[in-house]
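Query structure, 613 tokens:
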């Protein structure tokens, strides 16, 4: 289930409107009666960094498969003939299971994930068993959920299921419903006495884990799924996140309870949480789960599955700050991948390839939302490119931007064999050239280049590769260095040789290389690095280490010349340093390099810069 429509009234649409993610946050916040739309970032996580508690064998690699929600939520003609979300049925799950098994299983796609509504009737009225647990609707799933899982397993695939976090209000039943295998416990004994609500839709009562019966309720749900044979659970509406903040929306205890219940169930179950999780709690997400949605829904809730603006392009802004937290046992989830059906996808071929490229290099789980029975030839070629799949599944860290987050971007990651995965993106609405300069990868000279999507060796390139890309287009390369590693000269932002202007000031920074940084670059604040010396004139890719809790631009110039605005992606928080490169034209000898917020702007804090020798 998703950020917009699970617990809506019949006919009411609270889905994400056209526009950017902030607008969706405002709509959801106003609907909930909140005074602020997006919770402020917190400085620290709630627990220290820990290793993933679940066995990494459950999520040793990003999972691959299919999910029902994209087609359930779409207004594409014919998908939901019985009303909203009516696509979800045993009949359609069977069709997608058979198609995935025959077309994509051999490429690694193995999960069939049943999303929200499996316990709802066609009017979206929930069904529960005598213990307050969700029960399959007899018309949607006439064979029952165990039989559905058994059939998925018979095809050599894995079965996934879904729940919202908390005790669904309709299951409370005046507090009189007994809890399975928990003598003396009823629904009155598992929630707060004031019946405070929780989750992204305020659709559930918050469980009180100070009361032992609450854990027993989660245990009973986990055991039910284990007995049915499910291999994956998506827990949705989890906070902090889902555009909600405050104690009643803090579901860390729920997630911990699910982790404990799954461990006691006797069956390995992948636990995925959703949506737009708060990065300030990433240590908790890593400790208790196998994956976490980093963003709002990718679906447009319109007459296609997605559009470029709603919200494929948002991921380029939001993914970088999460990169360091992904790895075996837990992955950054960018949401479903809808690139296989052409017209129904709602995006053109260039956008489909760019969408698939980002998901692959970010090591997001690759789960399709398309109709697998109707994949077009281009979509099938994207989904079955073994070299691209290998990039997603190998043991290298996820790629991240090595250049500033301008409309033309380069993302890269070093592979275990010393080669680099390098992606070029043109996010502008018009064609443009994009260059991957080898110096942003740490070497100079020659490198061999392979075009991954086209499975073609392009030969040797010296110092860089440049490609003309269409609007929203991309290229994906494997670059194997044949040149020389670079060395750098570093200059700290707090150096007394620098010049500060306006509001700029030096502050302590435990994560910074010299223990300090230069910040308050706003309202005309400037930081000028003096006496930056190079032997030869030319354009240099300056390595900038910076801190920024949100995306911010800076005007960068050299020697008092014209400034160029560069966008810096958000780091995880105001205590985390990231590094990107910006091009600066320098003269032989001494130079000045200035970072300027502009008269009414806010620039990131600067740790240091490094210039290649």
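Result returned for the query:
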């Amino acid at each position: 289930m998703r950020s917009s429509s699970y617990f809506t009234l019949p006919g009411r649409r609270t889905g994400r409107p056209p526009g950017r993610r902030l607008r969706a946050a405002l709509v959801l916040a106003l609907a909930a009666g909140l005074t602020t739309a997006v919770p402020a970032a917190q400085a620290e996580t709630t627990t220290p960094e820990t290793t993933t508690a679940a066995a990494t064998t459950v999520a040793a690699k990003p999972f691959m498969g299919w999910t029902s929600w994209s087609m359930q939520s779409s207004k594409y003609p014919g998908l939901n003939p019985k009303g909203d979300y009516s696509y979800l049925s045993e009949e359609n799950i069977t069709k997608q299971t058979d198609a995935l098994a025959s077309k994509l299983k051999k490429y690694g796609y193995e999960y069939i994930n049943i999303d929200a509504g499996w316990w709802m009737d066609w009017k979206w009225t929930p069904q529960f068993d005598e213990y307050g647990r969700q029960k399959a609707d007899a018309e949607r799933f006439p064979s029952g959920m165990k039989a559905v899982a058994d059939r998925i397993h018979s095809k050599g695939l894995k079965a996934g299921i879904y729940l919202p976090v908390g005790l669904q209000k309709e299951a409370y039943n005046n507090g009189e419903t007994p809890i399975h295998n928990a003598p003396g416990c009823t629904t009155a004994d598992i929630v707060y006495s004031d019946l405070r609500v929780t989750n992204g839709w305020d659709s559930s009562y918050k469980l009180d884990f100070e009361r032992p019966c609450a854990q027993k309720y989660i245990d009973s749900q986990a055991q039910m799924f284990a007995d049915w044979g499910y291999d994956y659970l998506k827990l949705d509406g989890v906070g902090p996140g889902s555009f909600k903040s405050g104690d009643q929306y803090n579901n860390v205890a729920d997630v911990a309870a699910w982790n404990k219940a799954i461990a006691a169930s006797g069956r390995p179950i992948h636990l995925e949480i959703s949506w737009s999780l708060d990065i300030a709690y990433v240590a908790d997400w890593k400790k208790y789960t196998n994956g976490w949605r980093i963003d709002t829904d990718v679906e447009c809730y319109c007459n296609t599955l997605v559009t470029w603006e709603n919200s494929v392009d948002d991921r380029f802004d939001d993914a970088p700050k999460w990169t360091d937290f992904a790895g075996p046992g837990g992955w950054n989830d960018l949401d479903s991948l809808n690139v296989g059906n052409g017209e129904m996808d709602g995006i053109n071929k260039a956008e489909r390839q760019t969408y698939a490229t980002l998901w692959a290099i970010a090591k997001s789980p690759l789960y399709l939302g398309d109709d697998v029975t109707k994949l077009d030839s281009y979509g099938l070629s994207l989904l079955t490119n073994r070299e691209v799949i290998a990039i997603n599944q190998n043991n290298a860290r996820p790629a991240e931007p090595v250049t500033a987050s301008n409309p033309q971007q380069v993302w890269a990651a070093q592979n275990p064999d010393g080669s680099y995965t390098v992606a070029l993106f043109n996010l502008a609405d018009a064609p443009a050239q994009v260059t991957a300069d080898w110096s942003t990868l740490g070497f100079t000279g020659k490198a061999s280049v392979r075009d991954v999507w086209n499975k073609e060796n392009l030969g040797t390139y010296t110092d860089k590769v440049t490609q003309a890309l269409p609007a929203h287009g991309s290229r994906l390369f494997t670059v194997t260095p044949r040149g020389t590693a670079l060395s750098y000269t570093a200059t700290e932002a707090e150096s007394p040789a620098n010049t500060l202007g306006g509001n700029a000031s030096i502050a302590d920074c435990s994560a910074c290389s010299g223990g300090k940084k230069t910040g308050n670059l706003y309202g005309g604040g400037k930081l000028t690095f003096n006496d930056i010396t190079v032997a030869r004139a030319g354009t240099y890719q300056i390595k900038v280490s910076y801190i920024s809790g949100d995306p911010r631009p800076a005007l960068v110039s050299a020697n008092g010349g014209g400034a160029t605005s560069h966008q810096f992606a958000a780091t995880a928080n105001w205590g985390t340093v990231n590094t990107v490169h910006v091009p600066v034209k320098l003269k032989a000898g001494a130079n000045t390099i200035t970072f300027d917020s502009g008269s009414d702007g806010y620039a990131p804090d600067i740790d240091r810069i490094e210039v290649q020798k």
